[in-house]
Fold this sequence. Notes:
Layout: E1 8-17, E2 24-26, H1 31-43, E3 49-53, E4 60-64, E5 68-78
Antiparallel strand pairs: 1-2, 1-5, 3-4
Amino acid sequence: MAQGQQVKIRKSLVLFLKxxxxxxxxxxxxxxxxxxxxxxxxxxxxxxxIEKETNxxxxxxxxxxxxxxxxxxxxxxxx
Length: 79
């Protein structure tokens, strides 16, 4: 790494979906708040369609809540 460059950390919200081989990383403004919101939705007995707009390569996602198997927060380092 070149001298003077600072390593930054960004967080993404990671969704694990039924039948998907890889998880989906979503770059949102406040991943912790989105994580808490999704955890609450997943605890509900009724199904909901979840729509999120993001800042990364995936601009918008819509998925039924019963297709989400897990949610996580991932930290990535970048320069």
